[in-house]
# Entry
Amino acid sequence: MKRPLLSLIVLLMLAAGTPRLLSSCNKAVGLRTLTPYALPVPPGFPAPLYNNGENPLSREGIELGRRLFYEKKLSLDNQHPCSSCHEQLSSFGTFEHDRSHGVNNSHTLRNAPVLVNLAWAPYFHWDGQYQTLELQATHPITGDHEMGETFPNIIRKLESDPSYKKDFQTVFRTPSIEPLQIVKALAQFTATMVSANSRYDQYKKGQISFTSQEQAGYQLFLQHCNNCHREPLFTDHSFRNTGLPVDASLNDLGRIRITFSSSDSLKFKVPTLRNCYLSSNYMHDGRFISIQQCINHYRFQVQPSNTLDPLLRQGISMSNQEADQLMAFLKTLTDSSFVTDRRLARPE
# Structure
């Protein structure tokens, strides 16, 4: 058994407070054969990292995960599903909020990251605390400032709906709903959130041409941004200190909270820039409300510190015209088909 899966099982056992998790060895229920689903790999993308061996994708599993993603019963107050923080219109981030709202009128510590091309990510959350989609799903479900629920309560609520019992039996071949099955179904659905049909993608396939401003912005991007926001995923999945001053009210020091290494102080995961014009607010705490503010930070406001990324020690020098050109290019990363895809929307 691989370590991430072992960690997931231990975590869910603690979260569930019940031995039901291990009952997945029960005799399979006689049900129809699942329909395998092959994750699409867009042109130019590397091979996905999603572990299809430990959690094989099926159309039935993906559809169950979609249903759970929008299911209010997964939260303590039955009002905060996954989709309340990860809204499709905002590339599955939180629309025009610095930090997300959770149960009991709480606020999360950080801005909800967009859910884009997760099957290619080696780490999840701003500090990289989790290494699998299944592991990362447990945190918001049980977090006091997010969904605030427990798996035993969730299972009781789901099992009161015969259609859920039937769907779980179909996908996982067990007579009862298990915590591990819940996060596996969610992982299957979120793994299919593939965005690769932007104007940029069409340009790379030779289907369109950039305007002169977009082309100039693309060259500026390659010069100043591509080291960290590496195409085609527009992130290198690294953790970097980008020179943001610490918000005293949050005192969030980044990845050091996970590694306890001083070298990771103030470092956060490099986010993807895909659909960045749809996903405001920006940075780990959502402090910026516009792309222009983000660019101006790198031009004028980078704060020196011991762990500041070496690429930013002098900031990023560009004129106002160049900043406008860069913003024009970043608009080409908008994939409108992704945020209107009915396969990712709330089930009707």
